[in-house]
Amino acid sequence: MSKAEIKISKDGSHTLFVPELNEHYHSTNGAIQESLHVFIEAGLKHLNLDKINILEFGFGTGLNAFLTAIHKGDKEIHYHSMEKYPIESSTIKELNYGDIVDPNKKELFQQLHQVSWEEEHKLEYNFSLKKQQCDFKDVVLEPKYNLIYFDAFAPEIQPKLWSKEIFEKAYKSLVSGGVLTTYCAKGVVRRTMQEVGFTVERLQGPPGKRQIMRAIKQ
Question: What DSSP string describes 124-147?
Answer without folding.
Answer: ETTEEEEEEES-TTT----S-EEE
